[in-house]
């Protein structure tokens, strides 16, 4: 048994050294594809975080014209407060123009063009409304009533933003999933090809092995081990890359502390989970790819 | 030990390489398969260790119908059958010792068995002093002795030799034949395909003659013809 195991490892290592270029190609491809798989997981998780936070306090925002007089503002406020069954009156907040302008500074930090058009004088003030009712139709009905009031410029629903974010996140999920599947197939193909080359280089040995009665598994295992190792190294590299990316992203997002963007991060626990998944996928893809190649070229 | 019953083997759509061949080889026998190139000698040998499977007929080796056994059993069948070839099929990056040890290593024999068996068999073939040489440092006859050592190190019941003297000069070939004779005397069944008339006539053993895939003669203590 020990003799067999040491034989398998010796052969795996020798073959690894013999095919440096192909091995590197297979390792790098699997690393990149697994990095994409991991990114898909993380982006998904980050969007989920973002959306959960919004879900907790879905907001209705009533924007008030910048030229509205205090009376009109009072009318709007009274109207809102007269609906305690639908909205949480205690959490009703009024942001005056200065506060709204300060908020806009953060919201449009990445969009200086828009920001330049805004001044503390022309920016609408706003009522931020936290509903009690979970019925989005009811909230929408209420919002529509306010559209007609004098001094109301616009009524915005967080629900609309929510839909956009959900749609964007779904698009990103589909795109990254598709790309990572394609790359994973390429990686398996490259591993397959590396193993085929390794087997071709050793065809005389394989012929002799078969003639003296080595079992197919005995012949196959060093090659499968080689593929598994390639997948696993790819997995380790992708984990390092992912960890680096996530740290950089989290660091960058931390600057936007008060905005929704800050929710777009992934915590360590989930990161560890994703890393284990990546190592698993890498190992399995490598072993399966090389196993298929080994079986296919073992028919002498 | 080996029995063929009405065996027919065809490659592709061509005429059969072996047609309706039937014969039996007893344990400990030494048999020559003779005939011109392409007469089906090598195919017969390849049918005996299931490197080929026949379209029709049965091949029985050591009491088993070898074409009825599952693929997973074939390696264990082959551990009872040694193979020798005209071109030796040695591994060029391994020494004499390593080439012979390889045959034991890949069927999972432990190190202490290898350390004991390999020198013994190298002694038998007369290469004890060349353990550490590589194949390219050996003469053709010596290389063939290494391949015989590799085929015999596991003490198989049967030795299949396909033109083992084909690349050797007559004197060296005779040496190889004496070695195969000694192995045969230990009780190992030897089946040898050859078209070397001189050797067949010298040995005076059973001769099975083939012509275009058909057995045309099967004679005890025969000559090449």
Provide an overview of this structure.
- The complex is a heterodimer of chains A (about 300) and B (about 220).
- The model of chain A has no long low-confidence stretch (mean pLDDT about 80).
- Chain A is of the alpha+beta class.
- In chain A, strands 2-3-1-4 form a four-stranded antiparallel sheet.
- The radius of gyration of chain A is 30 Å and the shape is rod-shaped.
- Chain A has two domains: about 1-55 and about 165-295, no CATH class; about 55-160, Alpha-Beta Plaits, CATH 3.30.70.3040.
- Chain A is about 70% helix and about 5% strand.
- Chain A has helices spanning about 1-20, 20-55, 70-80, 95-105, 110-115, 135-145, 160-200, 205-210, 215-255, 270-295, and strands at about 60-65, 95, 125-130, 150-155.
- The longest helix of chain A is centred in the middle third of the chain and has 44 residues, at about 160-200.
- Chain A contains ten helices and four strands, in the order H-H-E-H-E-H-H-E-H-E-H-H-H-H.
- In chain A, helix 1 packs across helix 9 (about 215-255), helix 7 (about 160-200) packs antiparallel against helix 9 (about 215-255) and helix 9 (about 215-255) packs antiparallel against helix 10 (about 270-295).
- With about 220 residues, chain B is of the alpha/beta class.
- Helix content of chain B is about 30%, strand content about 25%.
- Chain B is built from seven helices and ten strands.
- Chain B has helices spanning about 40-50, 75-80, 95-105, 110-125, 140-150, 170-185, 195-205; strands at about 1-10, 20-25, 30-35, 55-60, 65, 80-85, 160, 190-195, 205-210, 215-220.
- Chain B starts with a strand and ends in a 6-residue tail after the last strand.
- The mean pLDDT of chain B is about 90.
- Classes of the chains: A alpha+beta (about 300), B alpha/beta (about 220).
- The interface between A and B is medium-sized, with 20 and 26 residues.
Describe the structure in brief.
The complex is a heterodimer of chains A (300) and B (225). Chain A has helices at 2-18, 20-56, 70-81, 97-107, 112-117, 136-147, 158-201, 203-212, 216-253, 268-296; strands at 60-64, 93-95, 125-129, 152-157. With 300 residues, chain A is α+β, with helices and mostly antiparallel strands.
């Amino acid at each position: 048994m020990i003799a067999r195991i040491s034989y398998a490892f010796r052969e795996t290592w020798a073959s690894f050294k013999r095919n440096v270029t192909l091995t590197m190609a297979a390792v790098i491809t699997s690393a990149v594809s697994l990095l994409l798989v991991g990114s898909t997981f993380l982006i998904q998780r980050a969007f989920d975080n973002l959306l959960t936070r919004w879900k907790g306090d879905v907001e209705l925002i009533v924007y008030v014209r910048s030229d509205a007089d205090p009376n009109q503002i009072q009318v709007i406020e009274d109207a809102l407060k007269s609906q305690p069954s639908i909205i949480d009156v205690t959490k009703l907040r009024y942001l005056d123009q200065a506060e709204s302008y300060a908020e806009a500074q953060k919201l449009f930090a990445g969009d200086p063009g828009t920001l330049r058009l805004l001044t503390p004088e022309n920016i609408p003030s706003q009522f931020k409304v936290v509903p009690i009712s979970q019925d989005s139709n009811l909230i929408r009905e209420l919002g529509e009533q306010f559209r007609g009031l004098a001094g109301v410029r616009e009524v915005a629903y967080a629900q609309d933003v929510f839909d956009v974010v959900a749609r964007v996140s779904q698009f990103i999920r589909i795109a990254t999933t598709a790309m990572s599947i394609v790359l994973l197939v390429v990686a398996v193909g490259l591993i397959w090809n590396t193993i085929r080359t390794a087997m071709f280089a050793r065809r005389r040995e394989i012929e002799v092995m078969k003639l003296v009665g080595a079992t197919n598994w005995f012949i196959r295992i060093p090659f499968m081990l080689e593929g598994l190792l390639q997948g696993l190294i790819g997995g380790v590299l992708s984990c390092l890359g992912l960890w680096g990316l996530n740290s950089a992203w989290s660091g960058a997002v931390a600057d936007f502390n008060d905005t929704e963007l800050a929710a777009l991060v992934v915590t360590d626990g989930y990161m560890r989970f994703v890393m284990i998944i990546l190592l698993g996928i890498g190992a399995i893809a490598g072993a399966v790819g090389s196993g298929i190649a080994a079986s296919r070229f073992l028919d002498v | 030990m080996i029995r063929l019953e009405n065996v027919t083997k065809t490659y592709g759509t061509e005429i059969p390489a072996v047609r309706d061949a039937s014969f039996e080889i007893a344990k400990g026998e030494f048999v020559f398969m003779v005939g011109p190139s392409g007469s089906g000698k090598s195919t017969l040998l390849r049918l005996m260790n299931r490197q080929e499977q026949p379209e029709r007929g049965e091949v029985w080796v050591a009491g088993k119908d070898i074409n009825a056994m599952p693929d997973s059993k074939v390696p264990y069948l082959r551990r009872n059958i040694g193979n020798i070839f005209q071109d030796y099929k040695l591994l060029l990056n391994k020494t004499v010792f390593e080439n012979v040890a390889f045959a034991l290593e890949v069927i999972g024999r432990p190190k202490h068995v290898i350390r004991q068996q390999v020198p013994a068999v190298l002694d038998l073939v007369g290469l004890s002093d060349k353990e550490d040489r590589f194949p390219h440092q050996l003469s053709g006859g010596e290389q063939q002795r290494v391949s015989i050592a590799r085929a015999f190190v596991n003490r198989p019941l049967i030795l299949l030799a396909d033109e083992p003297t084909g690349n050797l000069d007559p004197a060296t070939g005779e040496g190889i034949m004496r070695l195969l004779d000694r192995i045969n005397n230990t009780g190992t069944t030897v089946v040898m395909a050859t078209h070397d008339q001189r050797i067949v006539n010298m040995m005076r053993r059973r001769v099975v003659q083939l012509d275009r895939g058909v057995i045309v003669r099967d004679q005890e203590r025969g000559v090449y013809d």
